[in-house]
Specification:
Layout lengths: L23 H5 L1 H7 L2 H30 L20 H12 L14 H30 L8 E3 L3 E6 L2 E10 L5 E15 L5 E9 L9 E2 L5 E6 L20 E10 L5 E9 L3 E3 L1 E3 L3 E3 L4 E3 L7 E3 L7 H5 L1
Parallel strand pairs: 2-10
Antiparallel strand pairs: 1-3, 2-3, 3-7, 4-5, 4-6, 4-8, 8-9, 11-14, 12-13
Protein name: G protein-activated inward rectifier potassium channel 1
GO molecular function, one term: G-protein activated inward rectifier potassium channel activity
Membrane topology: Multi-pass membrane protein
Length: about 325
């Protein structure tokens, strides 16, 4: 199986290992670390933190009632306890939940003859606010991340090489399945290929930029309908010496990065994919997917990935120039 740097779904196949003492850096940015965790770990930490905090605070209320002897005199009407109607640990736990969630049933309440209870009540309010702000904020950021918006951004399964306006071009297609637009959409391409420098240094994953219209503004997309992104192969292109015959022996990967602002949320979204050398079709062109209907344009996504052969010289741009 061809080892990819970036999968077709945009996941990067890079794992960090042997961090040593550098793992402490994750704890210094704990909030981002929690947001980056998988959902199952987020839910586990969310439930565990609240459970431990609730049991700890309920135990503190029970300890105060036990130290003052309120548990033995709970049914004495002439005695004023720290917290009324707290008989055991379950009742102390219910009082804490009523206070923390501001439910206030009125059956259990703190009295003024308990200074240690007032101090614990203030501490509980501060601790609860901190825990709620941290965990609920983490879950809100986790749910509002625009990663799923990238699921409705499509890339063609293959890239093609053919002539356009008399010039040999590398092309692929992008599309947006939603009616909501991607504001300020911009596309970039990276060529991942191993090479050896004149000094003998081997670079296994050397990154090279592919020009998809940076100088002309063609990389700024109005992604309302499917667009064909074009990279002109000229003397400045890394594919200057690429021909149909040499394509069979080459080994490279083209990483495509599409970024934009989600119109409905205003958050930045990024979608990625990649094309290996066996996914580049020489002498092909994409089928048209847009047709004019009665008062609107219709996009047929059933032909989004389809291509057809066109006459294309099998020579590289360098060979054609010679």
């Amino acid at each position: 199986k061809r080892q990819r740097f970036v999968d077709k779904n945009g996941r990067c196949n890079v794992q960090h290992g042997n961090l040593g003492g550098e793992t402490s850096r994750y704890l210094s940015d704990l909030f981002t670390t929690l947001v980056d965790l998988k959902w199952r770990w987020n839910l586990f930490i969310f439930i565990l933190t609240y459970t431990v905090a609730w049991l700890f605070m309920a135990s503190m209320w029970w300890v105060i009632a036990y130290m003052r002897g309120d548990l033995n005199k709970a049914h004495d009407d002439s005695y004023t306890p720290c917290v009324a109607n707290v008989y055991n640990f379950p009742s102390a736990f219910l009082f804490f939940i009523e206070t923390e969630a501001t439910i206030g049933y009125g059956h259990r309440y703190i009295t003024e003859r308990c200074p240690e209870g007032i101090v614990l009540f203030l501490f509980q309010s501060l601790l609860g606010s901190v825990v709620d702000a941290f965990l609920i904020g983490c879950m809100f950021i986790k749910m509002s991340q625009p990663k799923k918006r990238a699921e409705t951004l499509m890339f063609s399964r293959a890239a093609v090489v053919s002539q356009r306006d008399g010039k040999l071009c590398l092309m692929f297609r992008v599309g947006n399945l939603r009616n909501s637009h991607m504001v300020s959409a911009q596309i970039r391409c990276k060529l991942i290929k191993s090479r050896q420098t004149p000094e003998g240094e081997f670079l296994p994953l050397d990154q090279c930029e592919l020009d998809v219209g940076f100088g002309t503004g063609a990389d700024q997309l109005f992604l309302v309908s499917p667009l064909t992104i074009c990279h002109e192969i000229d003397s400045r292109s890394p594919f200057f010496c690429l021909s149909k015959r040499s394509l069979r022996s080459e080994q490279f990967e083209i990483v495509v990065i599409l970024e934009g602002i989600v119109e409905t949320t205003g958050m930045t979204c990024q979608a990625r994919t990649s094309y290996t050398e066996d996914e580049v079709l020489w002498g092909h062109r994409f089928l048209p997917v847009i047709s004019l209907e009665d008062g609107f344009f219709r996009v047929d996504y059933s032909q989004f990935h389809d291509t057809f052969e066109v006459p294309t010289p099998p020579y590289s741009v360098k060979e054609q120039g010679e």
